[in-house]
Amino acid sequence: xxxxxxxxxxxxxxxxxxxxxxxxxxxxxxxxxxxxxxxxxxxxxxxxxxxxxxxxxxxxxxxxxxxxxxxxxxxxxxxxxxxxxxxxxxxxxxxxxxxxxxxxxxxxxxxxxxxxxxxxxxxxxxxxxxxxxxxxxxxxxxxxxxxxxxxxxxxxxxxxxxxxxxxxxxxxxxxxxxxxxxxxxxxxxxxxxxxxxxxxxxxxxxxxxxxxxxxxxxxxxxxxxxxxxxxxxxxxxxxxxxxxxxxxxxxxxxxxxxxxxxxxxxx
Length: 267
Description:
The structure is a single chain. About 35% of the residues lie in helices and about 20% in strands. It is of the alpha/beta class. It folds into two domains: about 1-100, CATH 3.30.1330.30; about 110-265, Alpha/beta knot (3-Layer(aba) Sandwich), CATH 3.40.1280. The strands form two sheets. Strands 8-7-6-11-9-12-10 form a seven-stranded parallel beta sheet, sandwiched between helices. The longest helix has 15 residues, at about 250-265. It is elongated.
């Protein structure tokens, strides 16, 4: 049964806004918000559990709602709102017409299923949700085995991270853990660690990335910590020919990850 809400003062609407704005609320309620038809569909088809689907019939494409609710195994509440309420909730005004409440997925390192020659992206202390989303898009494009986020400084279910990932947070296994846990797991699985650092001597394209590998990227502000620099099997860098010696972390990750794919004949 669908309920209809027309007031911005409705407690459900107020709580939805709170979940969008406050990491603490998301943690306490164990819920997060997904905005956009594509993003909601990716979450559902990737096995995320939705608790409520909020939609605006006037903004939805024809049959979009019916297609989603007819997917096998889906079960959630339905809330219809008018355009003025939806646009108060949505970042992208007058677009999409759909958002959802979902339960976070907490995947552990031990749950990861690796192929015979895994390639992973490890992120240390990523701070900006927009960068995290862009990194997840790279991971999806490369079809990486997983993204491991160590000592995160941002909520991975921040609405901006989900938006900027265009739903790729749902398509690639994502694990959060401490750096020490990640290092121990990588060692036990015989995955070589390639730390990216301006202090490195060797360039990324001169490095053999064909075996089981983890590309390690540092924080936007400080790069890799001494923990990762000391534990890396090799340190690598990207040539810098301009006057500024720093690329955006998502750009840097894409460069190195796709070099690894090139060396593997994009397999």
